[in-house]
Design goal:
The protein is of the alpha+beta class. It has helices spanning about 40-50, 90-100, 105-120, 135-150, 165-185, 195-200, 220-225, 230-235, 260-265; strands at about 5-15, 15-25, 30-35, 55-60, 65, 75-80, 155-160, 185-190, 205-210, 210-215, 240-245, 250-255, 255-260, 275-280, 285, 295-305, 305-315, 315-325, 335-340, 345. Strand 4 and strand 5 form a beta hairpin. The model has no long low-confidence stretch (mean pLDDT about 90).
Length: about 350
Amino acid sequence: MAEIRLEHIHKNFGKTVATRDVSLTIHDREFMVLLGPSGCGKTTLLRGIAGLDQIDSGRIYIRGRDVTDLPPRQRQIAMVFQSYAVFPHLTVYENIAFGLRMQRVPAAELKKRVGDAAELLQIADLLDRYPAKVSGGQRQRVAVARAIAVQAQVLLMDEPLSNLDALLRLEMRAELKRLLQEVQSTVVYVTHDQVEALSLGDRIAVMKAGEILQCDRPLVVYDHPATDFVGGFIGNPPMNFLLGRVSGDHIAAGGGVFAAPSTVRTALADGQTVRLGVRAENIEPLPTAADGALAGQALVVEPLGSHNLLTVQVGDERLKVNARADADYRPGQPVWLCLAPDKIRWMDPVTGRALG
């Protein structure tokens, strides 16, 4: 059982807090994604699991064993770095075999494992080449193959696709998901790309300022963000927000009136403010006025092929809205927006936390 358990992990770099009292359990064979902006502590947490950075306090358990004070080579993990870290003077075969040679794996077994990993990553025809003679995507496959060949039960990956161009990232993302379903390792994957996180992870841990704000299945994090930061970070475009005011059973926001759910009425009193959050795909734009629709004005129309993305000014806020590809909206045109009531999320504007 390759479970990883982190208990109250704290790490400082001088006066900068990198991780603050982080506790997390990563289940056996789970694909856990650590997601957040630069500087949020996700790579520090990964390096702490690997033993590359010594934590200041807390405990790290891998397979039920306390590895907090063990060096990396005794933790039985494999790691794929953002920079590939392939050796330019070694062939693809020798790069994949490097970790196995460090483990003193017998020659016959070494050859078999290198061949199996190369077949799995579809680079068997590149084994005699040097890294300079293969593409960036192929070098990334070499780095992944090297990690897989050692058959570690725990695989740590630090933004492995960030150096690839957009089309290759899309291809490699699908390949990586297929591959990791086959090897069945416990995977901890660091990224700042929320599309990668949503598409790859069994669960996503969203981090900010050294803390985990929410850890759950991708669609739960997307549809029910625990905070306004999570809603604003996850999704492309991110969640839209409007400031409203509570008045009895209703909330006035964006020039419209919405029914106040019991969670809002319980948490907030009359006259207090609340944030309304809604995603672009849960707003229907209309060319004419309709009951309950918010009046706005189209500022920008971005054709994206499958749909148009509208930027609409509503009061003091700008909302991102998905419109049909054949809908004829133009900058300066009046637009009315219908928000799906069951898709509205309510946030405390002071704490940023979801209500309910």
